[in-house]
C-alpha cells in the first residue's frame, strides 16, 4: 500500500483487486471440489465492507471534494475481504455437496471482468498521476 493522499484511490482499488483475486481462488477451489462429498461452496465478501466504510465516512455525496476526503480517510487496514461458507445447511445432491458448476463458472466469469476493470482503473489512475508529473 502506498501511504500518500495522492494514491488514495489506487489503494482502495488495490484492496478491491486483492479481494477479487481471493474470490477467484475460492471459486476455483469450489469447482475443484465439485465432486467432493459434503463439500460446501465458499465465497468472498468485500463489497459490503467497502460500502459500509464509505457510508460510515459520509460518502453519500456526489461532490468530488467530499468523496476525495472520504477515500483519503478510509482505514484500509480494517478493510479486508472475508471468506465464508455459503448456505452451509443446503445441499443440492445426495452426497451433501452444494456446488453447481454452472453457477461457479458464471461467478468466475463475472469476477474476472470485475478484476480486469479494477486493474484498468488502477492503470488509469497511474496514467493521470504520470500526466500531472510530465
Walkthrough of the structure:
- The chain is mainly alpha-helical.
- It is built from four helices and two strands.
- The protein has helices at 8-32, 47-56, 64-73, 101-133; strands at residues 42-45, 82-85.
- Strands 1-2 form a two-stranded antiparallel ribbon.
- α1 runs antiparallel to α4.
- The protein is elongated and about 60 Å long.
- It starts with 7 loop residues before the first helix and ends with a helix.
- The relative contact order is 0.20.
Based on Cα principal axes, name the global outline.
elongated
Report the major sheet: 2 strands, antiparallel
Secondary-structure element order, N to C: HEHHEH
Helix content: 55-70%
Work out the strand percent: 5-15%
- Poorly predicted tracts of residues: none
**Spatial strand sequence of the major β-sheet:** 1-2
Distance between the termini: 24 Å
Total helix count? 4
Chain-averaged pLDDT: 85
What topology does this entry show?
Blueprint: H1 8-32, E1 42-45, H2 47-56, H3 64-73, E2 82-85, H4 101-133
Antiparallel strand pairs: 1-2
